[in-house]
Amino acid sequence: MAIGERIRFFRNLRGMTQKYLGQVVGFPEKTADIRMAQYESGSRTPKTDLTNKLAEVFDISPQVLSVPDIDSYTGLMHTLFALEDLYGFKIDRLDGEICIRINRQNGSTFAKMTGLLKPWEEMAQKYRNGEISREEYDQWRYRYPRLEAERNEAARKKLKENNQ
């Protein structure tokens, strides 16, 4: 999904108009909706400072807006190929289902990726088990890595308190 589509997705998710969002990020009232329409349509691409401001307004991580272009299945496939090249992802089959794995022989990359994916798997499992709502699961995903860092900090404090 291109950045403009992500902006539209989160704007709609938050129940904002283009005019309101444009004003909140600092555009004049007269042109706020036009500017946001340009970003959402892809005729303009926001610079880093605007992307950061939009993320702040949406209460999400800026990286969520800058997802690779996966608008088409071909784009998605090339994103997966890039993950294979950069991070050692492997296409495989497990119990008759096609899956993507991390190449264990890629030592430090394997360890880093496992560390990053483990919290995602844990949160997805909590959602599947009914321990958290879809909204809580989405909040975790859209605020990643900030929410994960806050969760880890809270766990460290609790551990420290229990050890005293």
What does this 3D model show about the protein?
The chain has 164 residues and is mainly alpha-helical. The protein folds into 3 domains: 3-65, lambda repressor-like DNA-binding domains (434 Repressor (Amino-terminal Domain)), CATH 1.10.260; 72-101, no CATH class; 104-164, no CATH class. The chain is 66% helix and 7% strand. The chain has a two-stranded antiparallel sheet.
Key phrases:
164 residues, 434 Repressor (Amino-terminal Domain), globular
How is the secondary structure organized here?
Elements: H1 3-13, H2 18-24, H3 32-41, H4 48-58, H5 62-65, H6 73-87, E1 89-94, E2 97-102, H7 107-128, H8 134-143, H9 146-163
Antiparallel strand pairs: 1-2
Helix pairs in contact: 1-3, 2-3, 7-8
Question: In the CATH hierarchy, what is the superfamily of the largest domain?
Answer: lambda repressor-like DNA-binding domains
CATH architecture of the largest domain: Orthogonal Bundle
Structural class: mainly alpha
Q: On the 0-100 scale, what is the average pLDDT?
A: 90
Q: CATH topology of the largest domain, what is it called?
A: 434 Repressor (Amino-terminal Domain)
Question: What coarse outline follows from CA principal-axis ratios?
Answer: globular
CATH structural class of the largest domain: Mainly Alpha
